[in-house]
């Protein structure tokens, strides 16, 4: 007999009753240090007073009206995102996949409006993950996500991540855009070289393509800058955000320059729940915290400390760790032992992590961690790696 909850997840036999800061607690009071953060979602930890207050106040006032009317906090959040990014306009939705879909539609609409409807193909990278909709799994191109969902949505051409020569060779008369994660999340916490990102911008400009960054996981402070692409000093034409934008509340955004966003006129796109008052109240509270003086500097500092601890462990445990990779507080360890087994071992010791592709153990803790939390996590990790089978 099938479970009432559709069996699409391989869940751990563990349930949490509450969270506080960087810790989660079961109903029995067992405490876990959370270095998974809901897969890089709970950027401000659990029960953050600013977010709780914003949600409670808005919940008592107004939950939902849809986009039939003006939503002042939506306008405010859009203005703040525009003021702190390359973008001129923002569309709000509920999930990262929706934000990516909005960007894909925008690419096609832009060239259609420009009188080039035959330009619709988007170059993506092997190992990417852009969500679970039919178009998003086609963009990601991973067989494990595509299996059983034929026919694959047309319009995406894959090249190797980081290879500009291969990308150039893939450009044809139907090519419209390049879609890249500045840091591959599910694909193994692989950081794009700044020169590669600058090269993407140059290629897009040379061929008249749109540059589309998926920062659903690596954006919103995760790398120590508000957006990961800032490290390379480049700007895209379109960017997808989600995950940390709501700090745990479902909200996403697709940002674009004015010349691109102008094609999205009345009726071309929509979302019933997207940008509703509850989501906007929480997302504005997240920005209040992230844009405060010193917040991102602290994230960068904690990221450097965590990276240092991981490098020390890797040097001490070469039989278990192949390399350490990542940026800011989006870090990974490529293991010689099974990464998914290590996730279970760590969980048994009270540390929550998440696996990624390429046999990588992913550490994406809340951005509010302190050095004491890093020391606690490092001690557990070192002990479990020492006990891991060769």
List the keywords.
single chain, 390 residues, alpha/beta, Aspartate Aminotransferase, domain 2, 7-stranded mixed beta sheet, 37% helix
In short:
This protein is of the alpha/beta class and 390 residues long.
What does this structure look like?
- The protein is of the alpha/beta class.
- The protein has a domain at 71-263 and 270-290: 3-Layer(aba) Sandwich (Aspartate Aminotransferase, domain 2).
- It is 37% helix and 18% strand.
- The strands form 4 sheets. A 7-stranded mixed β-sheet has the order 4-12-11-10-7-5-6, sandwiched between helices.
- A hairpin with a 3-residue loop joins strand 16 (354-356) and strand 17 (360-363).
- The longest helix has 22 residues, at 295-316.
- The two termini are 39 Å apart.
- The mean pLDDT is 97.
Assembly category:
single chain
CATH class of the domain at 71-263 and 270-290: Alpha Beta
How many whole angstroms does the radius of gyration measure?
Answer: 21 Å
Secondary-structure-derived class: alpha/beta
Helix and strand string, N-terminal first? EEEHHHEHEHHEHEEEHEEEHHHEEHEEEH
